[in-house]
Amino acid sequence: MRKFIIGYIRQSLKVLKNPKQMIPTVILGIFWLVLALLGSFGINPLPVRILSFLTFAQGGMFGGVFGAVGGILGKIVVAAFLNAVIIPLFQKKAPFSGIGGGIKGFFKSLAVKSISSITPLLGGLGISLLLYAFMNSSQSLQNSIVGIIAFVMLLQNMGRQGGFLWGLVFSIAGSLSKGKTPSYIGVTRCLSGMTLGFALAVSLSAMKLPWSTWLGAGFLFLTLIFIFVTRSKKEVSAA
To answer: Phi/psi at 194 (nearest 5 deg)?
Structure first.
């Protein structure tokens, strides 16, 4: 996992060699600054609120230090998504390629027949709910765009069987399995769980129900129970 993260950081730093690829991020940063200034002066008409929603401008503005750190992570997600959408257009490539395959993979992974197959699904569900609550500490609909963006990015990662999240989950699964190659279906189920979790989190925000943290913790606890049960069954079978 460490090698994967270091490699990804090195790959990301290559953007610095091509300043043009940083233009979308710079423009987004300017939007964040302007919208924050407008908000501080109490200027908050409908167009400003819409732009704030679309750009996640208020991310990290609430929740103290914890909320600020989560908001920074959320802003990184939004910036990464913006680059992933705009840069391929200049390269005459389809920015949303892979989403169709991701949707198919998502529904296929929901067909579970055993505890071992549902475990990664529940784990991903719990992780994404907690991540959403971290990035959107107020769990408000105003900042829910980060969950929507994460949902789209996950579908794209599943369809392409690549990208940061796919590689990260695959790397973590490889570490936990002590060097064994993780199954693609297991990784897909985990990402499908995360996709489902972000969709659930945004829905909860729409209903003004700040339950993401507790639900996420509950699903992770249930995941640990399932892991324990699965291992116990394997030990009994081996004996």
So the answer is: -65, -40
